[in-house]
Design brief:
Blueprint (H helix, E strand, L loop, with lengths): L9 E10 L13 E2 L4 E2 L2 E3 L2 E10 L4 E8 L8 H17 L5 E6 L3 E3 L11 H5 L6
Antiparallel strand pairs: 1-6, 1-7, 1-8, 2-3, 4-5, 5-6
Length: 133
């Protein structure tokens, strides 16, 4: 689901995931990158629209930024955003993000997500990984 959101600011939460010994750790790096549109897209979960952008990938940790649009049905506030994002990450770890465990969740800060189309050299192409999408 892609929305035109202009120059609106969103809440950004940085998540640190730790790969386990499970060989599936790097098979599904969390991302909402669309290979068709060659840009990051928005998805929906409970009370939030979100975009996931990988930030750092190493053998020790995977850092992702989750951008949250709190202007959905229920207005989310600081603590609510943390709670919803934490629940979201825990659910994903137990289902789609096999081989990863939660390391850290940062406080929400105001930020702008990437909005340009990527033509080459995206983290997805550089990693050559089968990213979630």
């Amino acid at each position: 689901m892609v929305h035109a959101r202009g120059t609106q600011k969103f809440e950004r939460v940085t998540i640190t995931l730790v790969p386990t010994a499970d060989e599936r750790s790097f098979r599904h790096i969390p991302s909402t990158f669309s290979k068709t549109n060659r840009t990051y897209g928005w998805r929906h979960f409970e009370y939030m629209d979100y975009m996931i952008v990988p930030k750092k990938i190493s053998s020790n940790e995977i850092k992702i930024d989750i951008f949250v649009d709190p202007t959905t049905k229920k207005k989310l506030q600081g603590v609510d955003i943390q709670k919803v994002v934490t629940n979201f990450v825990k659910l994903k770890i137990h289902s789609e993000w096999a081989g990863l465990k939660l390391g850290n969740i940062s406080r929400a800060t105001v930020a702008s997500p990437p909005d340009q189309t990527f033509h080459r050299g995206t983290i997805e192409e550089i990693l050559g990984a089968n990213l979630e999408g």
